[in-house]
Structure to design on (353 residues):
């Protein structure tokens, strides 16, 4: 079956990487980048046409005292472009022969566990939504994305991209679903960059939760497993040091700013949603460092509860910063250390509230 288009597609590989590959890569890589750009644009345009009807869905219902259980389905796309594909492992099934299928099953379970235990959120929509994933999507497809209804993974190429089945990427993409079902953010300009930032923030927190890492122990990287050894880079993005995740002859240099002084005004990438997300990303990193311990116990709670109360699909960075400060005040008190540090984190990335 082929799903109807209902929401903007969210790919883990940003357009600026594909644009640089198209300029710097060999003939094979240039053709690959052009094809990926064309594919992503076509799907984005089709889904964006219906986005206004579904962008604002309201706050989900939260779970009660009965423990909620995940409902996972992993499909084999069989190298075709129709979704979801052939069901190969459903919730409760024993492991199958495919290590990739089992890994996706296990990692989506980690994301479910993170949201249910730390935020009392029952799956992506807050109401027990089945977590659907498709592996082996398309032939030679080098990306991963959230369709508005499910996760999709290409296989990589073993030249630049080793794998897209990475816990931070899965956490990132499923969080796009959480944003979608928490009121939504228009995928354009600063609202789109907040959307991308939330996906990055919760993607790295899922990894930290799974590894039980404190804020000082964590790498703060998104897509740490994605590159082959041929690429000069640590990951796709860094919350600790936006702009320093990679610097490669073919992929180019990480363009993310860490401060509003370096904000990138652009018509590409939907107004720089993957680029300027470095600014709110770094604000969260700074807050987590100030508060210490585990990122999800205080900083993560502020960000999650703020996401639920924002209810502004066209929010700017200043709107988002205001909402996080108000949320910190509500959770910890007006004169609290947490409120002061939330303000300070935003000030240090150039947003004064």
């Amino acid at each position: 079956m082929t799903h109807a288009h209902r929401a903007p597609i969210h790919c883990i590989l940003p357009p600026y990487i594909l644009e640089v590959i198209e300029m710097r890569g060999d003939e094979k890589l240039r053709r690959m980048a052009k094809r990926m750009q064309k594919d992503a644009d076509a799907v984005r345009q089709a889904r964006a046409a219906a986005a206004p009807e579904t962008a604002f869905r309201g706050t989900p219902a939260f779970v009660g005292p009965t423990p909620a259980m995940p409902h996972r389905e992993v499909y084999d796309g069989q190298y075709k472009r129709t979704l979801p594909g052939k069901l190969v492992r459903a919730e409760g099934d024993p492991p199958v022969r495919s290590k990739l299928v089992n890994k996706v099953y296990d990692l989506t379970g980690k994301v479910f566990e993170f949201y249910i235990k730390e935020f009392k959120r029952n799956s992506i929509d807050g109401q027990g939504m089945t977590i659907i994933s498709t592996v082996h999507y398309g032939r030679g497809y080098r990306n991963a994305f959230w369709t508005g209804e499910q996760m999709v993974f290409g296989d990589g190429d073993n030249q630049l991209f080793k794998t897209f089945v990475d816990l931070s990427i899965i956490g990132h993409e499923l969080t796009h679903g959480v944003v979608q079902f928490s009121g939504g953010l228009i995928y354009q300009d600063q609202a789109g960059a907040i959307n991308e930032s939330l996906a990055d923030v919760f993607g790295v927190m899922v990894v930290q939760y799974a590894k039980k890492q404190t804020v000082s122990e964590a790498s703060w990287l998104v897509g740490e497993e994605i590159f082959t050894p041929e690429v000069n880079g640590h990951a796709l993005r860094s919350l600790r040091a936006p702009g320093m995740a990679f610097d490669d002859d073919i992929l180019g240099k990480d363009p993310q700013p860490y401060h509003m002084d370096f904000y990138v005004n652009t018509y590409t990438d939907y107004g720089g949603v993957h680029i300027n997300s470095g600014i709110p990303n770094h604000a969260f990193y700074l807050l987590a460092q100030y508060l210490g311990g585990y990122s999800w116990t205080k900083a993560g709670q502020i960000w999650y509860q703020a996401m639920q109360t924002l209810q502004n699909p066209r929010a700017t960075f200043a709107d988002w910063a205001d909402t996080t400060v108000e949320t910190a005040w509500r959770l910890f008190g007006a004169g609290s250390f947490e409120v002061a540090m939330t303000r300070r984190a935003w000030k240090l990335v150039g947003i004064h509230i």
